[in-house]
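Give me the fold.
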Amino acid sequence: MSARAAAAEVTRERIIAASVAAFSAHWYEDVTVRGIAGDADVALQTVRNHFPSKEALFSVAIDRISGGIESVRGSVTPGDMDGAISTLVDDYEATGDILMRLLAVEERVAVVEPVIARGRAEHQAWVERVFAAALAGLRGKTRSRRIAQLVVATDVYTWKLLRRDKGLDRNQTITAMRELVASLHDKPEGGSR
């Protein structure tokens, strides 16, 4: 790689890092391309040369944040309920407030909507993989209902209610979420299929 190309890549990474920090700390509407340029210590035109719009900066920042989430959650061994809940709460400790801000603007910021839809689908797939034992033998509506229950028990809203609204500490939150998930493991099938 030439020195010029290497310098351009370093600049690009600084811009991405500044974008991640900006979208992590602020509401979408409050982030500006000019602010990201300042935080990256580059000219506004330099940012525009790499990323043509705020939406492009958001997209690259979300890809970076999502990659971190996937990496953390991907390390969970299916069936390890304690590890899964601890990992999930630790992930929400790092990303929960960001996610809550994105959820709050989902309906009015078009670029956020597909990000949230993808996150929901990825969370459900993670739940189905990690808590497969709670789904064993279930079919039809019963399986769909159990998946929905597990998604709710492990959702960022549940974390927010426990941590932010009810003031539980990290360990109490882990215990509460573990108890919710465990009750679904032990729950009799019941209901219609």
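The domain at 1-60 is CATH 1.10.10.60 (Arc Repressor Mutant, subunit A).
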